[in-house]
Amino acid sequence: MRSVIDIVDLSVEEIDELCKTSLDIIANPAKYAESCKGKKLATLFYEPSTRTRLSFTAAMMELGGDVLGFAGASNSSASKGESFADTAKTVSCYADIIAMRTTQEGAALVASRAGSIPVINAGDGRHCHPTQTLADLLTIYREKGSFDNLTVGFCGDLKYGRTVHSLIAALSRYKNVKIVLISPKELMLPDYVKEDILEPNHMEYMETASLEEAMPMLDILYMTRVQRERFDDPEEYERLKNNYILTLEKLETAKKDMCILHPLPRVNEISVKVDDDPRACYFKQVLNGKYIRMALILKLLEEAKKNPKRVDAFAGKGYEFNKHVCNNPKCVTANEQELDQVFKTIDAEGHQRCVWCDIGEPQD
């Protein structure tokens, strides 16, 4: 049995398999209508969500399964101080698989190590959102027919955007993918993403503050909103929130077959007039999210049936335990009691990064 916490938990071959299963679900829905009959999905959503929570619910229902869970930390025992680990152990008594969203980076990994059923990370703070990435990939595959030889522009909040980080990680494993990073300097892609993903994979990338400069070269434009909930300083959010707004006028220099993606929700960063442009694919993403989550639920439940033993994510990796403390205040280790501090060495110079959140660095 295993969980999916990060998109890199899935191999390229497995992503291709999930896309093929999704296409079969689209073509033959009746074939899958009772595939999860008698199974239960627990949706543990500590953070607000519309698309992700409802698409998981719809996915399980269309597979013939049942759904239980909560929306909002105040509706769970977290409001009484229950740990993520104890919640996962409890829910494992009731359900067969968990989809979990939190603001705490690393919380889904905690749940996967504590519970006895598969856990799907539905977003943990700034860290990862692998099923959104799967929805992005299925959309790209259906629109472009391949993940190779694409120039992909990411625009807006590249600093806090977990969907951006996850999709870059996924695309790094395909051939001749070029990345264009479009943001103000305050919201640039974090160095750790460049150091961990772009540079080791020798991905060609450029950074610019101009959407207009980047537009003509793009095959994919991935728009993001500036996320109020990720900012500690409200004034900084207000100053940056309207930096990039996609309009029909700005699309005049874009390729006729460019694909516009957005993980949603949008605020005002894409004009509603763009919705009717044939290049607008963000509502197709929403629907594709349901299909790919159906495929992922099927895959993890089948694997758990064949091998119910939990896979220890830390086994045999040569990690360093309890010698440092993570400096990321939103890391799950800052709030979850008695968690080991775990670090991995990321380069030849010996620099280390927290294994739970992939963001924090050691402090003594």
Question: Can I get a quick summary?
Answer:
This protein has helices at 12-27, 51-62, 84-91, 107-114, 130-144, 162-171, 191-198, 211-214, 234-240, 282-306, and strands at 40-45, 66-71, 97-102, 119-124, 151-155, 178-182, 204-208, 220-223, 259-261, 320-321, 325-326, 342-345, 352-354, 362-363. The protein is an alpha/beta fold and 364 residues long. Helix 2 packs across helix 10 (282-306) and helix 5 (130-144) crosses helix 6.
Structural overview:
With 364 residues, the chain is an alpha/beta fold. The protein has three domains: 7-129 and 287-306, Aspartate/ornithine carbamoyltransferase (Rossmann fold, 3-Layer(aba) Sandwich); 145-284, Rossmann fold; 320-363, Roll (SH3 type barrels). It contains ten helices and 14 strands. The protein has a five-stranded parallel β-sheet with strand order 7-6-5-8-9. Strands 2-1-3-4 form a four-stranded parallel β-sheet, sandwiched between helices. α5 (130-144) crosses α6. The radius of gyration is 20 Å and the shape is globular. 44% of the residues are buried.
Q: Could you describe the largest sheet, including whether it forms a barrel?
A: 5 strands, parallel
Mean pLDDT: 91
- CATH level-two architecture of the largest domain: 3-Layer(aba) Sandwich
The rough form would be described as: globular
Oligomer: single chain
- Give me the Rg, rounded: 20 Å
Task: Give the spatial strand order of the biggest sheet.
Answer: 7-6-5-8-9
